[in-house]
Amino acid sequence: MYWLRRGWAELRNEVFVLPSRTLVLVWALALLALPAVYGDAYVLRILTMTCIFAIFAASWDLLAGYTGQVNFGHALFFGAGAYTSALLSLKLGLSPWLTIWAGAAVALLFGFLAGYLCLRLRGSYLSLATLAFPLIALGILFAFPDFSGGELGISGLRRLVVTPTGNYYIAVISMLAVVFGLWLLADSKFGIVLHAIRDDEVAARASGINTLRYKLAVFALAGAAAGFAGALFAHYLRVAGPSTLEVSLSFQVVIWGIFGGVATIYGPVAAVFLLYPLTEWLGSFRAFGELRLLIFAIIVLLVLLFMPRGLTPWVRDKIETQCPRCKQRNGSWKSVCRLCGASLQAQVPGAERLVGHQ
Amino acid sequence: MYALLAIGFSLIFGVARIVNIAHTAFYMLAAYCFYTLLAKTGLGFLLSGLIAVGGVTAFSVLCYRLVIEPVREHEAAVLIATIALALIFQELMLFTFGGHFLGIPSTLEGAVRLLGVSIPYQRLLILAVAAAMLIIVWYVLYRTRLGLAIRATANDLEVANLMGMNVHRVAMATVALSVSLAAVAGVVVAPVFVVDPFMWLAPLVTMLAIVVLGGLGSLKGSLIGALIIGYVEAITVFAVPAGAYLKGAVALLIMVVVLLARPEGLFGVAFEEER
């Protein structure tokens, strides 16, 4: 009874006070409850794919948004996870439950390697060099078609479980676990160091932070998360093909990340949940089928023209305000800060104009 | 041909700090434009080529004003704006012309025999046009006031602005110059390659490899990078089994190796730490 009351109090004081947190809670609960309410196999399939790509996008954000290592070749990790898991389970006959972890581990190694190679590069050079990695991997795969299946990829994999609902729950639960894990990590001291590295690496190093070690760790972590998503993807679709390494997938994740708002973790996830079902839905109309990429690109372009910082920061600024004194966030309907009691409205005439001018 | 693309990309990055993913999409647009003018209206090669280059250049300036300039301050937004632009072009071309390959008749028929190897006139034309464009770009950059302004802006945007240059207009001139290079490349190679809506993707990667290899923002670097990458691709295809698959991989591998040894590329200038 005590724990129940305690939990309710936590919920009321920490979650319901902010509209953004309430939204996240509602979204997570809705995802978990969906199959019980509406079990259409097509919808479940789209949402499963969405969850897998959400893990992928969140891992890109940790690397690119927080640490500033804008990776144009994130598909490398996705493909590494997919191919490793597929090869192990098909050639050695291991259970997919084991090989998914092996895929994530190999992707972690790849992340470490890519990070090591990229330590000396920065800015655009880094982006363009990372763009090369998945293409090199793709060339090698095509050169050994007996081993990799060439253009067709490796097909005939076993699924983790047979039912669509089971697969859906696996994707949703692993997505929630990984995304909240990354969010916690990004909110911790570790995340603050990453912010520091992005904003000013020299200053971070001068403050006694071993930036090289942090960068390597982030590359490895992001690689592992992306590889995990790749392995899930391979076993869900039962095929690991060259499409997991393509440039378009790398670009896709960049679009999701920036569209949702970088350095937030939840931004790219929200972007995937909006954009991926949208493209699928548009594709389901015959007339729109050919135009869906066009519509997708136009929507992205228009949203960016109006919200250049991305979607979620814009929405968040609409529904919440920041307390000028203690920097805590408040619902936009409040007139006084919920923690320190400072007034949230400008009281000096003309002050709004001044604030807006900055 | 790659050199033309690479120099254009390198210019636009150096001056306007725009990583222009849509650069090769303009090259594709020019090829299509050329094809349409040639096949539908029956204009001569020279005239339709000139119209294609001019039209695409004007269009690029329009795109820059409408799409890129409003989000200039957010580098990330500029990046995906250009990706989105490239996708839009690709889909529009797919929609209007369909996905199949279109062939264009050669501008010049016949071939010349040189040391026992026959070289089609078309290839010679590409070589000549590329050389002419390189000389023009060199002249514009190093012998005119506009070139001086472009180089100054590339060097230090804020100081150039303080010295009374209209930085926005310089950026726009650079966009026009670089896209016209891409358009010329598109027009002259269209008869050699086939034209299809996805033709921008493969040169994009090679172009990025060249630019990074040679050093961002360096004319000489782009030229030498293009030569290196071009020869390496040709050699891999002939010398290594399954080389056709590996040609991109080997070219990119060379780029990565060079970057590891010299992070700013062969001829690049190390950018000052921006704070």
The major sheet of chain A is characterized as: 2 strands, antiparallel
Output the CATH topology of the largest domain in chain A.
Answer: ABC transporter involved in vitamin B12 uptake, BtuC
Gross geometry of chain B: globular
Number of helices of chain A: 17
Helix coverage percent of chain B: over 70%
Largest interface: which pair? A-B, 44 and 50 residues
Helix and strand content put the structural class of chain A at mainly alpha
Please, could you describe this protein's structure?
The complex is a heterodimer of chains A (358) and B (275). Chain A has 358 residues and is an all-alpha fold. Chain A has 2 domains: 19-320, ABC transporter involved in vitamin B12 uptake, BtuC (Orthogonal Bundle), CATH 1.10.3470; 323-358, no CATH class. Chain A contains 17 helices and 4 strands. Chain A has helices at residues 2-15, 19-37, 41-66, 75-91, 96-118, 124-143, 145-148, 164-187, 189-199, 201-206, 211-237, 247-260, 266-284, 286-289, 292-306, 311-319, 351-357, and strands spanning 154-155, 239-240, 320-322, 329-331. In chain A, strand 3 and strand 4 form a beta hairpin. The model of chain A is unreliable at 354-358 (pLDDT under 50). Chain B has 2 domains: 2-196, no CATH class; 200-275. In chain B, 72% of the residues lie in helices and 3% in strands. Chain B has helices at 2-16, 23-41, 45-68, 75-97, 121-143, 145-155, 157-162, 167-189, 201-214, 219-239, 243-261, and strands at 111-114, 117-120. A two-stranded antiparallel sheet of chain B has the order 1-2. Chain B is globular, with a radius of gyration of 19 Å. Chain B starts with a helix and ends in a 14-residue tail after the last helix. The model of chain B is unreliable at 271-275 (pLDDT under 50). The interface between A and B is large, with 44 and 50 residues.
